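Suppose you are handed a protein chain with no further information: no name, no annotation, nothing but its sequence. What can you learn? This example shows the usual starting point.
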Amino acid sequence: MSSILISAGDASGELHAAALAEELRAVDPEVRLRGLGGPAMEKAGVSLVAHQEALAVGGLLEVLRDLGRIVGTWFSMVRALRDERPDLLVLVDSPDFNIPFARRAKRLGIPVLYFITPQVWAWRRGRMKKVARRVDRMAVIFPFERDIWADAPVPVDFVGHPLVDRLSDLLERPEPGPARAELGLDPDRPLVALLPGSRRNEVRSSLPMQLQAAAALHVRDPRVAFVLALAPSIQAAQVEALIAAADLSPDLRLDVRSGVTYDVLRASDAALSKPGTITVEAALLGTPMVVAARVNSLTAFIARRVVDVPSFTMPNLIAGEPVIPEYLQEDAEPVRIAEAVAELLSGEARARQVDGLERVRARLGSGGAARKAAQIAKEMALGPARS
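A reasonable first move is to predict its three-dimensional structure. Written in structure tokens, the prediction is:
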């Protein structure tokens, strides 16, 4: 019986890791799976060494307040690696945790597969050499990543984007009415989704700005209602406090739903989102969106000097053009954001973006990412002769 340790340190990566775990059990029912993750991985049969909620924080400075929990998670995983000596370590995204962790595995002679590799094409390109030294194989999710890693001394396989599989039953976007009925939302109002992120610091920085934009849009059009989609990693108490501090008009309709982000996106006419994986999910579901974010000013100062991309919005990079309006830092002014969202509720701007999202969707592959990655993992864990 083979054993595989899976490390997925954030909410979106954990869902991809869960899909991988399900496929691993399909190709090898006897496989023993342990790891860093959350409820989706547990449901898929992974015995958790540590919970990814401890790592639900990002940014260059913001991690300091959660350093104790992060260190505890690190040592739990290191002990599992050292004591259990799995046949394979599978890393899923989370480069700040997983790249150093890969070094520990390398020292122990444990083979490493990186599924959903670091976005070295965006920033900190110096990590490429570290990744190439510490992993034995990569399963990438964007076609252009094969060229980026072409000179790496490890095999690189394009497996497609796992979101295509996860959202396969939802990709033919229906009218929003049924989704709204399931969520108990008003079917007669224009509806805007608020997507503040899956990390605590993201919610702290993005949600107040999103609520200000919602207030500005309410002044512009009181008919518009809002639904706030919370990731499972976010505590309701944190959000309730931020909503109370926003002092919204009592006439502004704001519903909060946790753990049903896809349903919220299907129900909504448009979305206001922070940058990240959620923008790819919204693009696949065909929900027009505006992207806006604010982070710590020093974090932003440093990021502008190390990040080398024309946009922080992934669908724009996939499309090779500015399909989605993006407002960052000082440009993230609530009235401007509200105007951009209002334009997406109907008219030419909405039609243009819907067309652009179709182009994004076409470039993300035809599916089977987790299945292909699981076959690679099986080969690495058992060896070609035994797989």
